[in-house]
Amino acid sequence: ESEEESNGVNLMEFSDEILLHILSYVPCTDLVLNVRRTCRKLATLCLDKSLTHTVLLQKDYKVNKDKVKQLMRDIGKEIYQLNMAGCYWLPSSTIDHVTRCKNLVKLNLSGCHVTSLRLSKMLSTLQHLRSLAIDVNPGFDASQLSGECKATLSRVLELKQTLYTPSYGVVPCCTSLEKLLLYFEILDRSREGFMLSGQLMVGESNVPHYQNLRIFYARLAPGYVNQEVVRLYLAVLSDRTPENLHAFLISAPGSFAETGATKNLLDSMARNVRLDALQLPKAWINGSGLLQHLKFNNPFYFSFSRCTLSGGHLIQRVINGGRDLKSLTSLNLSGCVHCLAPESLSRKAEDDIDSSILESLVVSCCNLRHLNLSAAHHHSSVSIGNHLCQLLSRLKHLLSLALPVCSITDVAAGVEKPPTTPHLVPQSFGRKVRIGIQTYPRNLADQANQKIESSVFWALMGSLRFLETLEIIGSSFSSAMPRNEPAIRNSLPPCVRAQSVGDSEVAAISQLTYLQSLTLAQLPNILTGSGLVPIGLQCQHLRTLSLANLGMMGKVVYMSALMDMLKHCKCLRDLRLEQPYFCAGAQFFQALSHCSSLQRLCIVSRSGTLQSDAVMSFMASCLEVIMCHMFMGESLTVCKNLQQSIVRSFQAERPALNVVISPLLHEDLAEVIRDVPMRHLDEITLFKSRVAEEPPNLWW
């Protein structure tokens, strides 16, 4: 035996505890179907209860029907929690094999194809089930549910239901509900163009049983029908508010008017319950004294997104004059334009914030882990020590943070120097950059020479060492791809103060060693994108990257730096790029091929171009990619041909493959988007701020 072999470490010599910890990072399908067949020791360890108790298939994009069948046959009786959320590629017959899991307590089938008959057959055998997540699609018929199925549903305590058609779904059968999560994804028009009605079937009204409800959550996609249907769900709550209700959350875009029934519900809540989590439509809060009357226990989540709530009301009515709110871990003030000002009547949205309000917030809510201040102009004054970034640096527990671009401006620097020359020319023109010549600093030291590292944003990034998610979004940014509407052709100009935020601020983000998700949108002073390179080098845990409208809009000034960055992003799984005139050519895809872990790619580009051969080569070299969405300036024929080529070449090897390639400004774009699986649409294709979007750990 050689010296090298004698000094080597044999994996099998590790203790069982260490091996079990290592094996916990391996997908369950690989453990059961592959790893356990290698040797006797691993055969035993792979079937340990700690590894088979909970089976997560929700992002195992390589799993297919046969693997699920074999998995259920081998360890079905050992599974107590099964998560198949978003497995849209599996045929509905796959669900039949879940009946082998007789001891299931938690089951997540969101995004899976399940008919009411299959659901009935499956639930009839799962007598121990207490937590269920399903979709309710057109054609769902509750009358097809058997007595055994309804008996199982009567014992369910937690239900997550995504509605694609007006219906109560299985809610009337769940008589013991303690947690109800509702996602309304009903379109106003059918595929044939007929208007849909929000009225439910006769005989279904006031059937839901909410007497034991502790958590009520409803998230509405845009559309009038969704509002109609959710009002029917709320009607029962308005008659009798559950005594144990401690979380009431409704997320509704746009205008969702308050009615007499909802006002009665809120009045009843003010009298009878003490809440730990609250989110309401803006029309229900604006101009009302509701917050003054609601009582809170130990709140952990507040969302006042898009409300006209002033900072004075926030401090007085929510924080109660600065009382201890150490229990609050998540706060969403996105679009709350006056939340850091004493009052909102005479204030302009661009006026300076009142730093004392933010300081009270930071002191009272010192354990915040998730904070969203995006979609507003939060301008700090020149006074020393009171900059927004300096105050936020006290929140040492932050894990995710969303800020408007103009809020990170170093005020002193911004006052001393005018906007740089490139902003004095129209955004549709720019100095030509020679291809092949690097026009940005080659290392972080050069970057530091451009701007002193003592800026307030640099200091903030240095103090939030454990931050995992960061969003820096222009206060007036809007994506070119809104939900259920044609693509937006014009965007609002960036805030004046955002003009001084550029490459050096982006470079400051590289201090976040544990960063996993980064979003940068509408940073007009990006000249070369040089700050992206150190992020790629130092943020080695980065999994999600979203860049939108960086630099001048007439050209992609950061392409060279982006390609250098991507060569270092070995853990990157999701990439979203939104930029006019983006050229998705051979050089770009060659750089992107270095991202060996990449699974999902989305490019949105007005007047953008692509090279079909380069896309095909990229798909062939990056074997993990299962989603390719491109909305460009190419013709419909070019897009369709490329989409068909990708599907034809790779669908057999990648069962979860989802490809959408379409002209961005095509009139049928909304119809194309409606066929995208909700998992991809919600997580990457549509742009939105995701920090504190929902309470933490809302669903497992």
From TrEMBL:
InterPro entries: F-box-like_dom_sf, F-box_dom, FBXL18_F-box, FBXL18_LRR, LRR_dom_sf. Residues 8-55 form the F-box domain. One of its GO terms (biological process) is SCF-dependent proteasomal ubiquitin-dependent protein catabolic process. Gene3D superfamilies: 1.20.1280.50, Ribonuclease Inhibitor. PROSITE patterns: FBOX (PS50181). PANTHER family: F-BOX AND LEUCINE-RICH REPEAT PROTEIN 18 (PTHR16134:SF19), F-BOX/TPR REPEAT PROTEIN POF3 (PTHR16134). This is FXL18 protein. It comes from Pitta sordida (Hooded pitta). The gene is Fbxl18.
